[in-house]
Design a protein that fits this description.
By secondary structure, this protein is of the alpha/beta class. The protein has two domains: 144 residues, Aspartate Aminotransferase, domain 1, CATH 3.90.1150.10; 240 residues, 3-Layer(aba) Sandwich (Aspartate Aminotransferase, domain 2), CATH 3.40.640. Helices cover 39% and strands 14% of the residues. It has 15 helices and 14 strands. Strands 2-9-8-7-6-3-4-5 form an eight-stranded mixed β-sheet, with helices on both faces. Helix 6 crosses helix 7, helix 6 crosses helix 11 and helix 13 runs parallel beside helix 15. It binds pyridoxal-5'-phosphate. The site of pyridoxal-5'-phosphate (PLP) has 13 residues, from helix 6. Pyridoxal-5'-phosphate binds next to helix 6. Homodimer. Keywords: Aminotransferase, Phenylalanine catabolism, Pyridoxal phosphate, Transferase, Tyrosine catabolism. Pathway: Amino-acid degradation; L-phenylalanine degradation; acetoacetate and fumarate from L-phenylalanine: step 2/6. One of its GO terms (biological process) is L-tyrosine catabolic process. One of its GO terms (molecular function) is pyridoxal phosphate binding.
């Protein structure tokens, strides 16, 4: 072979032994933990081959095809296909999209302009920029327990310390305000609240929202309000924290995923409610943080103005009516089961069911309950341990009624087959991490 400079380099390289050691990962990757994935990956999932597998675990309303987005949403995107630009747009969103969101959420008490809106890649991304902008390794954020596990994933990834305040199941999952206050210290950056709640399916009363704002105000703290289920309250009043706040700066995180039933289209937004101009630096920070991923999908965000304008109120009302009806089906199927205590939801798309663990013969906790339920009955609810509360399961409500009934009946049969003859003495209370 003719010797060339190129061959010479290759020959030189080949003399080195081939490196086979594993490439190390960074602390950032190592500390990015999604408890849901961790749980689902570790769970023994062996459904009973004789029974169809009924998954009530996934928080995705599109799974069963009975909660499809309205035609106006599809049309808005189709129309936008022909007019959409193909290039990059401002990382915090198209002006037309930000203006439309500002107009949609504008209230007399909280006037908004496009400058208050940051378009994001789903509500998750809005939460990421909010937590990133306020928290740091030295500045902690208070989180709800039980709560949506993504908050911990984001905090772990950034090294942001978190402290948990309790939601009280005996009191409509409201916040224990004294405990909340006791957690605040000079390094607290923000209080994060979720309303309506995943996983609890609860909605705070307006008075409770005011009380939470009063605690934040007393300590000069901003709220990060995860309001992805905003306006998804079955009965009664539904107000956002931004609308109610007179003095507390609120970063409200929302998006198309749940109310418009298109979680896979990945467009959300953050609205800065800021009556006293305390967020001027934060706005700059949020704008810069949007630049990390160079903004949200342009095709979908371009359709947002038409979506907000054209989807009729009847679509939202119908979704809520059907969610409420699904919750009533589950409640009526489970309420008389001696080993269970279902909690009636008031909003969002989930229902929490408490497991009276002492009434089971051979089940020690929610994880074991779910594993055995899958193996014997092929029903998969989510163990609420991953949300920080032991011995509850969370059921998804966007499931067709016949499947919901079938799942509930199998759960009741399972409980009966595993019931304790006399209540067991539980020697130690399992405490979720
Ligand atoms: C409380 C809560 N916040 C945020 C999200 C994430 O929303 P998105 O899909 O828009 O990122 C979810 C999704 O289930 C959620 O339940």
């Amino acid at each position: 072979m003719k010797k060339t400079a190129h061959n010479g380099i290759l020959n030189g390289l080949m003399r080195h032994p081939v490196c086979t050691s594993t490439i190390p990962t960074s602390p950032c990757a190592d500390n990015t933990i999604n408890p849901i994935r961790g749980l689902v990956d570790n769970l023994v999932i062996n459904p009973n081959p004789d029974k169809p597998f009924l998954r009530l675990s996934i928080g995705d309303p599109s799974v069963f095809g009975n909660f499809d987005p309205p035609p106006q949403v599809i049309k808005a995107v189709a129309d936008n296909l022909t007019t959409s630009c193909y290039g990059y747009v401002p990382a915090h969103g198209l002006v037309s999209t930000r203006s439309a969101i500002a107009k949609y959420y504008n209230t007399a008490s909280s006037p908004l302009t496009s400058n208050d809106v940051f378009v994001t890649s789903g509500c998750s991304d809005a939460l990421r920029i909010a937590m990133d902008c306020l928290g740091s390794e030295k500045r902690n954020i208070l989180l709800p327990k039980p709560g949506f596990s993504l908050y911990q994933t984001i905090a772990g990834n950034r090294g942001i310390p978190v402290k948990f305040y309790d939601l009280d199941p005996e009191n409509n999952w409201s916040i224990d305000l004294n405990q909340l206050e006791s957690l605040i210290d000079e390094n607290t950056a923000a209080i994060l609240v979720t309303n309506p709640s995943n996983p609890c399916g609860s909605a705070f009363s307006v008075q409770h929202q005011r009380d939470i704002l009063a605690v934040a105000e007393k300590h000069g703290l901003p709220l990060i309000a995860d309001e992805i289920y905003q306006d998804m309250v079955y009965d009664g009043e539904s107000k956002s924290f931004g609308e109610l706040s007179e003095h507390v700066p609120v970063l409200s995180c929302c998006g198309l995923a749940k109310r418009w039933l298109i979680p896979g289209w990945r467009v959300g937004w953050l609205i800065a409610h800021d009556r006293h101009n305390r967020l001027s630096k934060v706005r700059d920070g949020l704008t810069k943080l949007c630049q990390v991923i160079i903004g949200a999908n342009v095709l979908i965000q371009g359709a947002v103005p038409q979506i907000l304008e054209t989807v009729p109120q009847s679509f939202y009302d119908d979704t809520l009516k059907r969610l409420k009806s699904a919750s009533e089906v589950v409640y009526s199927e489970l309420k008389d089961c001696p080993q269970l205590r279902p909690f009636k939801p008031q909003g969002a798309m989930y229902m929490m069911v408490q497991l009276k663990i002492d009434q089971f013969e051979d089940i020690g906790d929610d994880m074991e309950f779910v594993e055995k339920l899958i193996t014997e009955q092929s029903v998969f609810p989510l163990p609420a341990n991953i949300f920080g509360i032991p011995n509850y399961v969370r059921l998804m409500l966007t499931v067709p009624e016949d499947i919901l009934r079938e799942a509930c009946q199998r759960i009741v049969e399972f409980c009966d087959q595993h019931k304790a003859a006399v209540p067991r003495k539980i020697s130690r209370i399992e405490v979720a991490p």
